[in-house]
Amino acid sequence: MRIDILSLFPDMFQGPLSESIVKRALQKGLAEIHIHNIRNFATDKHHRVDDYQFGGGAGMVMMPEPVVAAIESLTNERKYDEIIFMTPDGEVFNQKTANLMSMYDNLMLICGHYKGLDERVRQHFITREISIGDYVLSGGELAACVVADSLIRLIPGALNDETSALSDSFQDGLLSAPVYTRPADFRGWKVPDVLMSGHDKNIVEWRQQQSIERTITRRPDLLNEDE
Ligand code: 6GU
User: Fold this and answer.
1) CA-based angle 108:161:190, to the nearest 5?
2) How far is the CA of 132 from the centre of ligand 1 (A)?
3) CA nearest to 36, candidates 155, 141, 165, 181
4) Which of 6, 12, 137, 141 to mutate to test the pocket of ligand 1 (most atoms within 8 A of CB)?
5) Mean pLDDT for the chain?
6) Candidate CATH numbers 1.10.1270.20, 3.60.40.10, 3.40.50.720, 1.10.150.530; the one for domain 169-224
7) Measured from the CB, is residue 140 less than 6 Å from ligand 1?
């Protein structure tokens, strides 16, 4: 998988994508991430990327020319499965979308900033618009990191234990069961007996029950979702 990220703040990607599972997947060649500074595609002498909005109102709007120049420099090189605009008014990202997108070969993520992106670019170049939740971030960069991380960890070989993605919260529509490690007695708080019993069938049943109870109390909305 190749992910191209277009941003006005390319430095924001250094940390999140260079640690842990994502770092290892990139090192293994399972995925590559290319960050592009939209400002480098501005053609005027001040490298302007935003301007006032027509009709008035607070906040600047990302100008069409630099973003489209950046998009086309990439689409001239290869075909993209999706060109995604990261924006709080997009569809809310979830595990189902992550699973689908993890099978793509080429993905472009465009990070919104300021008041947003000129609507004509959204209409004519963007194939999908994604939000990561109902709150507002300063820009799409952190959201793009979230999406990239969630996709890359699903690529076969990215996780050490191939089965562990399957037991993630959400992967079967339920939250995960609680987990424990040593010591078996920490300050007098004991690990549930069933986990120490060595009885595999009971452990599976206990975990399933815990998953269901957690989902009912914390996220009842998940139980009514299709699939
Ligand atoms: Cl994708 N962008 C911004 N700016 N805020 C968000 C978001 C994206 N998703 C949730 N909040």
Assistant:
1) 120
2) 6
3) 141
4) 137
5) 95
6) 1.10.1270.20
7) yes
Which residue stretches of the chain are H helix?
20-27, 64-75, 95-101, 119-124, 141-152, 193-196, 200-218, 220-223
CA–CA separation, 154 and 99 (whole Å): 7
Q: What is the mean pLDDT of residues 147-162?
A: 91
Ligand 1 test: best mutation among 7, 8, 87, 110, most atoms within 8 Å of CB? 87
pLDDT at 227 over 60: no
CA of 152 to the centre of ligand 1 (A): 20
| CATH class of segment(s) 2-152 | alpha beta
- Tens digit of pLDDT for each residue in 195-220? 999 999 999 999 999 999 999 999 99
| Domain spans, the chain | 2-152, 169-224
pLDDT, average across residues 59-77? 97
CA 21 vs CA 1, 25, 77, 106, 139: distances in Å: 15, 6, 28, 20, 24
CA of 14 to the centre of ligand 1 (A): 19
Atom of ligand 1 nearest to the CA of 93: 9
**Contact 139 CB / ligand 1 (< 6 Å):** yes
Amino acid at 33: I
pLDDT at 136: 95
Residues in a beta bridge with 6: 36, 110
Taking the model in full, what pTM does it have? 0.94
Is the CB–ligand 1 distance for residue 88 below 6 Å?
Answer: yes
